[in-house]
Write a structure and sequence with these properties.
alpha+beta; 6-stranded antiparallel sheet; 23% helix; 7 helices; 604 residues; elongated; 31 strands
């Protein structure tokens, strides 16, 4: 029995020893795994730093703005950097609608944050490129480096990938890891593949690189499992299309450009103090030949010639005719905007009806009033009889609802229906649409108008549960509301009434410091009780408004079909109500002195 017990005790001891050995072995295994994970993390950190250093000067951040409102942020890579300009390849989401069709929005302004944290302007050079890509152009920056795409690089299934992006606000370069999708059949109709790299929206257009530092694709954000990316060979095709189109435009314009420049240089050399004997070698080569644009370089010691206005316009690249510009022209014409005459770098449309206002922070009382009364504010637009062309767009406020006819009446500006600000004539066969706070559009009818005070009443079949009240009371602190027709976005800005003479309209107009845009024409000016104290018009020097006292008299005249005297108005003003017409701004023209323009860049 004793021996048996001893054996049992020995057996238990062996089991305990084995258990301890297993525990120690498990601990060693866990430590080994931890060490391997740490080693892997350090390896990725070091590799990420190396790749980030390699691509630091090639990745920029982009942001597009509708007025002062941010539309989209993306990442881009430098595909060309010359003395002429810098080209950035990025996702078309930067300048398009959010729906799957990605329709181009031409009114957006583009900003780029460079690796050195400098923020510069950009503009679209090519929009209708394959694979939902666009080329954004900005001025030359010597600190940027171009990237290369391989059209023969094959990505294996287990290849480790790194997705890079640059944040617009901070300028920081960020990365995330992943591998190609396990299912090679996961690709869309455009040839995009998927990776497991999880990117955010501003990572669209950022590069996807392998461990050797090769760019295998460009990421395109979609709210789905996996991140689509356009493969390198597809990007190479996309860039080739862009270069072909650019070269076609340059070949079309270059001969006329150089000959005009040569004529001016030779004809004004004595006037500007340049003699033929003192011309530099670069100048002689330029004047005696027809070089390619890439070879044109000016050093610091070469003076820039002065051009008068007509000569400056002759050397601007004319607005080209291709698939992209035809699309832009159709959109502009439909919205009633002028077509561009030149292709100038950074050109933009000014004075359009889609520019928003009121991005400043409202005070708490103003915010509450704006939130409450925005349900009474609508946007209106007038069109040709077939709705193929827009005439005008503005804001209006609902002032009453007629239960017997189930119609709501809107107070707005008569600019909506008049031929121009200087003519008291009604535009024939106009159709009117009203954009409600719900973004629903309803056709409206012109009920009454007064060109003298530029007031119009539009009625439409709708039950408005919150109508505004007009009051005749002096005010100091006021709030201007508006709504954009195309987007339906509401706008608000606060200010005060000032003693300043108005140069447009009638003598009864007053001025407030509320800064609005053309989209706010016809919109209500409110006191801080939510009452309408006036109707806004647009001017670059303060915001004119027609006081409610005059509006109420005009409304009584409408309701009672009274003559001006009967309505308490002793005379009708002989007024002019001009509205700033949309126009194209060409940055090169901003460098023009009176009667003289200075050309700093031959081609933007």
């Amino acid at each position: 029995m004793v021996r048996v017990k001893r054996r049992a005790r020995g057996s238990n001891g062996q089991q305990e020893n084995r258990k301890r050995v297993k525990e120690v072995s498990s601990m060693f295994s866990e430590c080994k795994d931890m060490a391997e994970n740490i080693k892997q993390k350090l390896y990725w950190k070091k590799l990420s730093q190396e790749l980030a250093t390699k691509f630091f000067a090639s990745i920029v951040s982009l942001a597009s703005f509708d007025g002062e409102k941010l539309h989209y942020e993306s990442t881009g890579v430098v595909v060309e950097n010359s003395l002429r300009n810098t080209c950035i390849l990025t996702s078309s989401a930067l300048v398009s609608t959010s729906d799957p069709e990605r329709r181009f929005i031409y009114r957006l302004k583009i900003k780029l944050r460079l690796p050195n944290n400098q923020v510069v302007d950009g503009w679209i050079q090519h929009y209708d490129l394959p694979f939902s890509m666009v080329v954004v152009v900005t001025g030359y920056s010597p600190d940027l480096r171009t990237v290369c795409f391989s059209n023969s690089l094959q990505v294996q299934r287990n290849t480790h990938l790194l997705a890079l992006k640059r944040c617009f606000k901070s300028g920081k370069l960020m990365q995330t890891h992943g591998v190609p999708s396990d299912d090679p059949s996961k690709s869309d109709s455009k040839g995009s593949m998927l990776s497991t790299c999880k990117i955010t929206m501003d990572g669209s257009g950022g590069p996807l690189v392998d461990l050797d530092g090769n760019i295998v694709g460009i990421n395109d954000y979609h709210d789905q499992e996996g991140t689509p990316y356009v493969q390198g060979n597809k990007i190479d095709e996309c860039l080739r299309v862009a270069r072909i189109r650019r070269d076609e435009v340059q070949r079309h314009c270059w001969q006329n450009f150089t000959s005009a420049f040569k004529r001016h240089w030779e004809g004004s050399s004595n006037e500007n103090g340049y003699s033929g004997e003192s011309e530099s070698k670069n100048q002689k080569q330029f004047l005696s030949s027809n070089p390619e644009p890439q070879a044109l370089e000016f050093t610091e010691d070469v003076p820039t010639p002065e051009l008068i206005e007509d000569e400056h316009k002759r050397i601007l690249l004319p607005w080209p005719s291709d698939g992209f510009t035809k699309m832009v022209n159709a959109l502009l014409d439909k919205d009633g905007y002028p077509l561009p005459a030149y292709a100038d770098g950074g050109m933009r449309l000014e004075g359009h009806f889609e520019e928003e206002f009121g991005r400043d922070n409202l005070s708490e009382p103003a915010r509450k009033i704006a939130l409450k009364m925005s349900r009474s504010v609508v946007a209106l637009a007038s069109f040709s009889h077939d709705f193929k062309k827009r005439h005008f767009a503005c804001t209006g406020v609902c002032i009453d609802f007629d239960g017997s006819t189930s119609t709501t009446r809107v107070l707005t500006s008569a600019s909506l229906v008049r031929t121009s600000g200087d003519e008291n004539e009604l535009f024939d066969n106009l159709k009117i649409r009203v954009c409600l706070p719900s973004n629903e559009c309803i056709e409206g009818n012109l009920e009454n108008f007064d060109f003298c005070y530029n007031v119009a009443i539009i009625s439409f079949p709708f039950r408005c549960n919150r109508t505004a009240m007009l009051v005749d009371a002096p005010q100091t602190e006021v709030l201007a509301l508006g709504r954009v027709f195309k987007t339906g976005n509401s706008m608000a800005t606060e200010g005060s009434v000032i003693s300043k003479e108005c140069k447009i309209g009638c003598k009864e107009l007053k001025i407030s410091t509320c800064k609005i845009t053309k989209a706010g024409i016809g919109g209500p000016l409110l006191d801080f009780k939510g009452n309408v104290v006036g109707m806004n018009f647009y001017d670059t020097e303060g915001t004119p408004y027609l006081p409610s006292k005059i509006i109420l008299k005009v409304l009584r005249r409408f309701d009672n079909a009274e003559r001006p005297v009967a309505a308490g108005m002793t005379e009708e003003p002989n007024s002019s109500w001009p509205v700033l017409k949309p126009y194209w701004h060409y940055p090169s023209e901003s460098k023009i002195e009176p009667k003289v323009k200075v050309v700093h860049h031959i081609l933007d």
